[in-house]
Design a protein that fits this description.
The structure is a homotetramer.
Chain A (H helix, E strand, L loop, with lengths): L3 E6 L3 H12 L4 E7 L3 H12 L20 E2 L3 H6 L5 E4 L6 H11 L3 E3 L7 H14 L4 E3 L7 H12 L5 E9 L9 H20 L3 E7 L15 E7 L4 E7 L7 E8 L2 E5 L6 E4 L2 E5 L4 H22 L7 H20 L3 E2 L5 H5 L1
Parallel strand pairs in A: 1-2, 1-4, 2-3, 4-5, 5-6, 7-10
Antiparallel strand pairs in A: 7-11, 8-9, 8-15, 9-10, 11-12, 13-14
Helix pairs in contact in A: 4-5, 5-9, 7-9
Function (chains A, B, C, D): Involved in the oxidation of myo-inositol (MI) to 2-keto-myo-inositol (2KMI or 2-inosose).
Subunit structure (chains A, B, C, D): Homotetramer.
GO molecular function (chains A, B, C, D): inositol 2-dehydrogenase (NAD+) activity; nucleotide binding
Chain lengths: 354, 354, 354, 354
């Protein structure tokens, strides 16, 4: 049987996660190569996941670990072009994506590209057009929320029409604290971008206008940093979405979403798990970070991508979805800076894709 | 790389589930053989999961499916002894387990045995002793709840000592409706047995006495059938557990558990997921059956078993746990019939296992 | 307009609560007299609630306080017989109730008697018989849970038949810590007695047998004290109830109840109120004591009692309910001491009440 | 003792509710007069609540009902000026308030005025100035949410500073369906006005700018009606609030609110009560209308108003609060019509009130 042979570009936190995933929990795929500017990190990972040794030695993986030799390739473009690599996961920094995506297209390699597709709408559109010329979809973008069982159930419920036409979407997206070098636009580009994809996907419509408000910031950020932010999306089909992004919430990670339709509403992200009564309180833990909440979504996303590649398809957000998200985020950053609503500058889909 | 080659005995609902699991979602294992008295069903499954044809033809699985040829073997004991089978999953009816387990022990094959270990305490004890003679653990019993993330979190919380010593455990175990040929003792032997294992595991103590009460039954069962039942377990370490089992609850599947300790309580199984407001009500769906609730637990259980076999170990309930559960259920059925508390007749562990 | 003139016997915590209630929040009643062995406390209360001075001075209550002169009467029996007292609230210690109830009956004074009716089944039965001779109901017993909006809603739902016949009742009753001089039987007589009344009321049936188990106690109590306790009630109509009473739960006050019927279950006491996300947790506060949970129930109970007295009726638990509760608790204490199930010794209702 | 003698202007649904409240559940007040253009309705109410007959006959109220003769007065201004009326509740239509409020001020009668204070900011300001001239507060405005135990607890939590500075407030306000003659501005003026008061009160700041968005409306309303609406409030202190008002939600009445602060968030309005498992679902009932949710708030509001009048004070929203709400709603309606954010035109408080 031929497991799909995967190469991963970038083995920081996200890439390393994907590597572990492929080796330990995914069916039908093998990790064969990794690449990272930090060669030491790449080699450490390769050794750990080979169950024997890095490239060059044949390492028999112990039963239960779909490992084997994992080759460390210094040049990511060489990894993309390598014969032994059937498909690629891009977990490199956003600024490297454009070049690496074009390489994947050139070599006809299916690729799961962690968001963002590229750093800006213009280059994202170029990627879309380049893929379109090939005549088959090779790019899937890593908006993993679509694979979270709760988001999937919500989508299914809305599509069933049982609640009528969806009218509004209320979103809350909170992190415990930001990392170093945090800047206000990151809220839009790195966090809010998930709600952009969710809104487009749940409503089945493009976002035509966005307003990003910034209330007086929390005292937990340095002067000049705007956190939290509150955005309003106006969609082309008349629906609306609002999003609170609060990166320094101090409490933990929380992603919640309520869809309001003509005959009812549906909420996800309420959490649950173990409910404790202790020390004068009842309730549960708020997770530290996104992993607890979305680990399963990533597993499902990657498994389904691998299954789809086997069928010659993609099974998730397309390059167009990545481009549209970039276009909305550009407008969002403009709104954040101007304090005004900003129309989204998006190419006409039928013109681009036919 | 050597995937563990699995043979499955019994491809009814549970066995077929495991087969799908191995082929589509589990890392490091391959399905190589199935056996079932219903040959047609076994062959249909083998074809479906081979991605080509049954044994005899070489079938290349598409990428993403760890399939390959799946051989149908008429005689389960022949499957157990087959050279190409590294490890066995027993999903056959309980009455067949004893013979099949002895065969696994004889051939030194690691085996994941769906509960019950065997049909009665005496033969279960024989299996325990036989395995003990071999000097290494080969048998893991399929009490999957231990792998449910909520049960696992509860166990971790209790073990941490944060809430003090556990004192009581309240359990609720409900099904929508029973299948055909349902008899009152099945509630104890097939349903309550899960709470028996959970109580022993969470409290770290044997159950010394059990009372199974039967209130006036629901009108949904024929005369003479006792449903629901309400049991009280008294544990050797002084703790207690109570269990409501209601097989014809009419509503859906529900498994809930509250542990009460010296400084607090913790509850799991409260459900969540999508919370809807519609038609004058707020709330969510109660799942139809156990699959929604425990699919993930089975995936984790099987993945960890496979990983453990690779290390020459087990990683879950042992044959002793299967024997203890059988002993408690025998006492439970006696209590159900007599209306009295009944002491559990359990061999001394140190005597049996050294 | 003639407000009902109330006299309160016993102004400890409960009696003082009722006094405040009458003066500040109840419509159609006035507090005219109080009695307590602790004369200083009675006088302080009388002054505080008179809005001027105690008996002897004419005190005009300010608008908004249905006060007026509140007379302190040293002898509770004199208060019961006083002309200016239309109706009596007994909030004295249980051992004083029998004598004070007989006095109320003798003077034809309607009385709201805080539980217990009396200290034992025998004297309770005598009270029931004495009232029966009068030919009209004068005694209402203070099982306030029947007036809690959640219990009332539960009762209404079960009576509607929408869920079918009620089969089981799971109860949890927890306090933060016990007061001084705490003894094991108090759990049955003072705490569990509420669940006794609730079970009889919700199921509409007498309790025929009770088993009170005591697991190994929490380390928070001195040697010899049994806390928590876990009881099983078997009802005459075939239904069953179970009750965990845990007086030193350390966490706070919690009263929860789940009724299980043929086609569904209903739970109350889950709490709610403000749900906070802070310090890594989500959830709410567990109240310190019963007041937060049942303050409103007491208000409703007293208002409805006063309204009923105006109609010459009672509107809540009767003397028989008080007697039945005493009978069950006596059996419960016997079970706690013997470790065996104990049948409830209850007179035949039709014989006693005709 | 002198109960406060209350006259109610307007006995439609709200006024009749208040009448019942005074007679049956409020301490320290008596209903003495009602007025309504619908004389038949006023008389029916007067008879029902007199417990005997209307004005002219001496009606002894039964014990438990603080009734007595209730006089029907045709002219509301005559009621306001009547000697036997100590304080007034205005539950007349909004357009009648200005005249009736000036009458109350002229006669020095304390008045609880159901919202809106008046129909527009200008006349509201006149009322504020007129009251200010008198030198004592006579007017309390009926924004009852401040008295809802959950809103009160939320206020207390935010004021404690435990969660840090409040930054955002998310509000949801849904009704099942609108009444006849419904127009889009009613959403702002009659529904959203509650969130206006809540936001000002919880944040302790004026609202400086408002944007009212209207997504494509629900199909449940006639063409031209905009429902739901989604508003964004920008407060003077830098905080922000958002409000979804959806009058034809089809499901029932729901008012929910989440305050987000620097170190946590707090949510109210999640409901609870009886949680049922039946027919494949778990959950509870969504109330039909506002009464279930806010009946208690009204009781507390009126009781505290009456207590405060007795002290020569008010204890709730002032005339200024009514004026500020009117100013924000005027800006809100302008925004709804223009599609633009609109600054709130509010007089300077220190200038007006000194």
């Amino acid at each position: 049987m031929s497991d799909l042979r995967i190469g991963i570009v970038g083995v920081g936190a996200m890439g390393a996660d994907h590597a572990e995933r492929i080796v330990r929990r995914i069916s039908g795929a093998r990790l064969v190569a990794v690449s990272d500017p930090d060669t030491a990190r790449a080699e450490e990972l390769a050794v750990r996941l080979s169950g024997g040794g890095p490239a060059g030695g044949s390492a028999a993986a112990g039963a239960g670990a779909a490992g084997g030799a994992v080759r460390v390739i210094g040049d990511p473009l060489e990894l993309v072009g390598a014969r032994e690599v059937d498909a690629v996961i891009l977990a490199s920094p956003g600024f490297a994506h454009a070049e690496q995506l074009f390489a994947c297209l050139e070599h006809g390699k299916p690729v799961l590209c962690e968001k963002p597709l590229t750093m800006d709408a213009a280059s994202s559109l170029q990627v879309v057009e380049a893929e379109h010329k090939l005549g088959k979809p090779l790019i899937q973008v890593g908006f993993m929320r679509r694979f979270d069982p709760e988001y999937a159930a919500l989508k299914q419920l809305l599509d069933s029409g049982e609640l009528g036409r969806p009218l509004l979407l209320h979103n809350v997206h909170r992190n415990k604290a930001n990392g170093p070098g945090f800047r206000s636009e990151m809220i839009v580009r790195d966090s809010m971008v998930h709600e952009v994809d969710v809104a487009r996907w749940l409503f089945g419509s493009e976002i035509s206008r966005i307003t990003v408000h910034a209330p007086k910031p929390t005292g937990a950020v340095p002067d000049g940093v705007l956190d939290p932010q509150f955005a309003v999306f106006e969609l082309a089909n008349g629906a609306m979405a609002d999003v609170e992004v609060f990166v320094n919430f101090q409490v933990g990670y929380e992603v919640r979403c309520e869809a309001v339709a003509e005959r009812g509403s549906a909420t996800i992200g309420l959490g649950s798990g173990v409910v404790t009564r202790a020390a004068g309180h009842w309730g549960g833990a708020v997770p530290e970070d996104f992993r607890v909440r979305f680990d399963l979504a990533y597993d499902i996303e990657v498994q389904r991508w691998i299954d789809a590649v086997g069928r010659g398809e993609i099974d998730g957000p397309s390059a167009w979805d990545g481009y549209a998200a970039a276009a909305v985020c550009e407008a969002g950053i403009a709104s954040l800076n101007s304090g005004q609503p900003v129309a989204v500058d998006l190419a006409d889909r039928r013109t681009v894709l036919g």
